[in-house]
Amino acid sequence: MLAMKKDSDNFRESSIIDIIRLLKKNGRNVFIHEPLIKDKKSIFGCPIINNFDLFIKKTKLVVTNRASKKLNKVSNKVYTRDIFGEN
After folding, report:
1. Is 21 in contact with 36 (CB distance < 8 Å)?
2. Would you say 2 and 14 are in contact if contact means Cβ atoms under 8 Å apart?
3. 86 lies in a domain?
4. Average pLDDT in the chain
5. Which stretches does DSSP call E strand in 1-87?
6. For 33, which of 55, 79, 80, 83 could close a Cys bridge (C-beta 3.0–4.6 Å)?
7. Among residues 28, 8, 15, 24, which one has the least CA distance to residue 65?
8. 42 beta partners
9. Predicted confidence band at 7 (pLDDT cuts at 50, 70, 90)?
10. Domain coverage including residue 62
11. DSSP code for 41
C-alpha cells in the first residue's frame, strides 16, 4: 500500500516511493498492491496487482507503509515501519 495514512489516496509524497526507486535501480522486480488505484495497470513503471492472493504469490518480500490484518498470514515476508499496526 502506497499511501502514508490509512484510507488516504494521497501517495505522491509517500516515503515508499523512494524505496520503490531504489529497488528498481538495483534490478528488482516491483509489484504494487494498492486497492485505491482502480484506473491504472501500472504506476512508477511497476505493475499493479489488485488481487491480494495473486500479489502475495508473486512476491518474495512485502514492503508496506502500514501493516494490515490481511498481511498477518504472510508476516514472515513483511517489512513495515508500522510496528504497532495502527497507521
Report:
1. no
2. yes
3. no
4. 82
5. 42-43, 46-47, 62-64, 78-80
6. 55
7. 15
8. 47
9. low
10. 16-80
11. S
pLDDT in tens, 60-76: 999 887 778 888 999 99
User: Pairing relation of β-strands 62-64 and 78-80?
Assistant: parallel
Residue entry with cell 535501480: 25
pLDDT of 5 above 60 = no
- Is the pLDDT at 87 greater than 70? The verdict is no
Rounded Cα–Cα distance for residues 36 and 55 (Å): 15
Q: CA-to-CA distance for 33 and 65, rounded, in angstroms?
A: 12
pLDDT for 19 equals 87
Number of domains making up the chain: 1
* CATH number of residue 69's parent domain: 3.40.50.720
Q: What pLDDT, on the 0 to 100 scale, is given for residue 11?
A: 57
Q: Is 56 a domain residue?
A: yes
